[in-house]
UniProtKB/TrEMBL annotation:
Keyword presence, Transmembrane: no
One Pfam entry name: MreB-like_C
Keywords carried by this UniProt record: Coiled coil
Annotated InterPro entries: ALP_N, ATPase_NBD, MreB-like_C
CDD domains: ASKHA_NBD_ParM_pCBH-like
Coiled coil: 112-139
Protein name: Uncharacterized protein
All copies of domain Actin homologue MreB-like C-terminal, residue ranges: 172-293
Signal peptide: none
Limits of the Actin-like protein N-terminal domain: 6-156
Keyword set includes Coiled coil: yes
Length: 319
């Protein structure tokens, strides 16, 4: 049972942590259909039932199961993912899987770009969220949040940065699937103080690699490719047999990754202006810290340990 949970709802994965455990699931939700027992045995992921007070029981496939079903919907076309109905489904699912107690304390994030304008709305929304949630063949359990804290993405990850200086200005870059958040902060006596005018979000991130690869694949083979297959190839070894022909996509993938990393670098550098040259340390977080060759451009930057988890872990550390 957990009475405090921190959830980072990303465009690609939901990362959720409590003091007792943690869970990551792809941010994909599909309408449920009946599965035979043998279907079930072969599938990973979650069949989830959600019943809001006075409402009907609604059933979904969440995570891997939704991807395998092929009908899954992600947020990728929505600029404000927390306003999408999937946001609640994902939050309720991971809260249930982590064993959240009723009226648990929840820490959740918002991209820096939306933080000021939408934090109150999201906080109220999550405080009102309440449902009986069942996963798999388990019993339903009431999930609700007594206290909700909304924290800016990136700033959460910065709390997990090993601060190697006790003064100066540091920059944290959280490269995700669709958004890259950058947080510039002053360190004063070991306290981290973000400088609002030097924080923001870009819409260049790992997803751009997948989009560019899909276009290259189509140009080279003449065939379109599904998003699931793109991720498999880009995250795999880059070599594939397609319609009887062998392709080695490694050089193409490397080029694409470099150009996306360069674009992130150029935009962050432009946003910080002269201040960029005076940073005492640059930290990298998010899956992009692993997926992209960012240190070729951000010379001397340090990747946070378990970069994809850094925000959620930072969120948990504030309560
Ligand atoms: N070890 C890894 N190797 C390669 N790619 C990875 C690795 N870990 C994560 N990624 C990829 O990095 C990307 C970003 O992951 P991350 O979880 O940071 O994004 P997100 O938080 O869901 O997105 P956003 O912050 O834009 O909402 C994803 O495409 C993910 O598949
Ligand atoms: Mg993220």
């Amino acid at each position: 049972m957990s009475n405090v949970i921190a959830i980072d709802v990303g465009y690609s994965h939901v990362k959720a942590v409590s003091h007792q455990g943690r869970i990551v699931i792809p941010s994909v939700v599909a309408p449920a259909r009946e599965l035979s027992l043998s279907d079930f045995a072969q599938k990973t992921g979650y069949a989830v039932s959600i019943q809001k007070p006075g409402g009907p029981v609604q059933k979904y496939f969440v995570g891997e199961l939704a991807i395998k079903e092929g009908q899954g919907a992600t947020f990728t076309t929505d600029r404000e993912k927390h306003r999408h109905p999937n946001h609640d489904i994902l939050v309720l699912t991971v809260a249930k899987l982590l064993g959240a107690e009723p009226q648990a304390t929840l820490v959740a994030g918002l991209p820096i770009a939306y933080y000021k304008a939408q934090k109150e709305e999201l906080k109220k929304h999550l405080e009102q969220l309440e449902a009986d949630v069942a996963t798999g063949s388990g019993e339903p359990k009431r999930i609700s949040f007594g206290k909700v804290i909304i924290y800016p993405q990136g700033a959460g990850a910065l709390l997990k940065a090993p601060l190697l200086t006790n003064s100066g200005t540091v920059l944290l870059i959280d490269v995700g699937q669709k958004t890259t958040d950058y947080v510039t902060a002053e360190i004063v006596n070991d306290m981290v103080r973000p400088i609002a005018s030097l924080c923001g979000s870009l819409e260049t991130a790992v997803g751009n690699v997948y989009d560019a690869f899909a276009a290259e694949f189509q140009a080279l083979t003449g065939s379109p490719i599904s998003p699931v297959r793109v991720i498999e190839i880009v995250r795999g070894n880059g070599q594939v047999v397609f319609n009887g022909k062998e392709y080695d996509f490694r050089p193409i993938i490397q080029n694409i990754k470099e150009s996306v990393a360069r674009s992130v670098f150029d935009q962050v550098q432009a946003a910080l202006g002269e201040r960029f040259s005076f940073l005492s340390r640059v930290y990298l977080a998010g899956g992009g810290a692993v997926a992209l060759p960012l240190t070729e451009f951000f010379r001397g930057a340090i990747s946070l340990p378990e970069p994809q988890w850094a925000n959620a872990q930072g969120f948990l550390s504030i309560v």
